[in-house]
Design brief:
With 140 residues, the chain is of the alpha+beta class. The protein has a single domain (9-136), classed as Hotdog Thioesterase (Thiol Ester Dehydrase, Chain A). It is built from three helices and eight strands, in the order H-H-E-E-E-E-H-E-E-E-E. The protein has helices at 9-15, 17-22, 53-69; strands spanning 25-29, 34-39, 45-46, 50-51, 76-88, 96-106, 110-119, 124-136. The strands form two sheets. The chain has a six-stranded antiparallel sheet, covered by helices on one side. A two-stranded antiparallel sheet has the order 3-4. The chain is globular.
């Protein structure tokens, strides 16, 4: 896909409604790098005011999906996550978390993306590797 493709936060929220509920912000979107941010909020936490792992995994999954979409081969209409592996490495008790997704493999049928989540202190919060299946136009 071309770097000329432009995507903004409002379009992300329209395309992925969960991103609106979570309050995700799109900071950068190219075929090489996607950056999304999530602010800590009490309603996204578990015990001890720690940002819930599901919120973190949703951030990583969304960043990876956008990255895969921006790397679709010609003629494809979309992607769907078929596998995701996340290591949660640090608790987040405030501030914001930034997801940076980069493609590891861009194939005709599969796209593999690596996503790192970092907090405001640039501490590694989690690492996710996900495989996205390419959905071909007219597939049913």
């Amino acid at each position: 896909m071309t770097d000329a493709f432009q995507l903004n936060t409002a379009q992300l929220h329209e395309t992925v409604p969960l991103s609106r509920i979570l309050g995700l912000r799109l900071d950068e979107a190219s075929d090489e790098t996607v950056r999304l941010a999530l602010d800590w909020r009490p309603e996204l936490c578990t015990a001890g005011a720690v940002l819930h792992g599901g919120a973190l995994m949703s951030l990583a999954d969304t960043a990876g999906a956008v990255c895969a979409f921006l790397n679709l081969p010609e003629g494809a209409e979309g992607t769907t996550t078929i596998e995701s592996k996340t290591n949660l490495l640090a608790a987040v008790r405030g501030g914001a978390v930034t997801a940076t997704a980069t493609p590891l493999h861009r194939g005709r049928t599969l796209i593999v993306v690596e996503t790192e989540l970092r907090d405001d202190a640039d501490r590694l919060v989690s690492k996710t590797i996900q495989t996205q299946a390419v959905v071909q136009s007219g597939a049913g």
